[in-house]
Amino acid sequence: MNYDALLSLIRSRRSIRRFAHRPVSRDVIERLLEAARWAPSNHNRQPWRFLVIEQSERIAALADCVKQHLPGRLTALPAVASAYAHEFAHHATSFAGAPVLLVACHQRPVSVSGALLDGLRHPTLVSGEPLSVAMAVQNLLLAAHSLGLGACVLTAPLLVGDALAPLLRVPAGFDVTCCVALGYSDESPAAPRRKSLELIAEFRDPPTSSTDDEDRRGDL
Asked: Is 219 inside a domain boundary?
């Protein structure tokens, strides 16, 4: 695949929150996970684990759990943001109608690195486990889009992670990184606004032209 084809795929992907009543085959799910497992990871530890939930009853139960426990957490929002609490709760449970819910998990840093990470402001960022899983999820999102599926990453359910834990049965030594709602799209969202390159990139050491070099030598 050349750059233009890859960029076209990236640009046309959307976050999908409404899904058609159409099952996703196990073969398709495995193809997505195959793309995910080829993501780069810190020291090639491949610290990811994906919990695949396909039963609509279980997905609905997880959404009900979020719906039940999230309002108590949202009371901590400042007054200026409280008006958006209902919308936030709606998005947090938008996976309820998805045919498949993928729960992406990252392995906790190995104990031998504990002393090295102790005292750091963001130790999990340095250890790389969540970032590695995030890269695997991006592979999965692009693979899903290439196969005609829609998906949406959700982190809001993690706000009630303790309540979800008994339902998810996350493997020992792992923590949930994010959830991915997956299915065939029942909507066609417009492209979201993107910041310009000038707003997101800083070229700290721009190349100098030969004229600049000559001018600089003349000043010596």
From this structure: no
The enclosing H or E element of 151 equals strand 150-154
Is residue 217 in a domain?
no
- Distance separating alpha carbons of residues 203 and 33, to the nearest angstrom: 36
Contact 49, 111 (CB under 8 A): no
Q: Which residues contact 57 (CB under 8 A, 6 or more apart)?
A: none
Do residues 179 and 157 make contact, with C-beta atoms less than 8 angstroms apart?
yes
DSSP for residue 204 = S
**β-pairing, 174-183 with 100-107?**
antiparallel
CB atoms within 10 A of CB 208: 10
* CA angle centred on 94, ends 71 and 101, rounded to 5°: 115
Q: Is residue 205 part of a domain?
A: no
DSSP H stretches of helix in the chain:
3-12, 26-36, 56-74, 79-82, 85-92, 114-117, 123-127, 129-146, 161-168, 197-200, 210-218
Tell me the per-residue pLDDT of 40-85, one tens digit each, with 9 for 90 and over.
Answer: 998 899 999 999 999 999 999 999 999 999 988 888 777 766 667 7
Provide the whole-model pTM.
Answer: 0.87
* Exposure on the CB side of residue 149, measured as CA atoms within 13 A: 24
Domain of 40 in residue numbering reads as 3-195
Helix (H) or strand (E) holding 152: strand 150-154
The alpha-carbon radius of gyration of the chain (Å, integer) is 21
Q: How many domains does the chain have?
A: 1
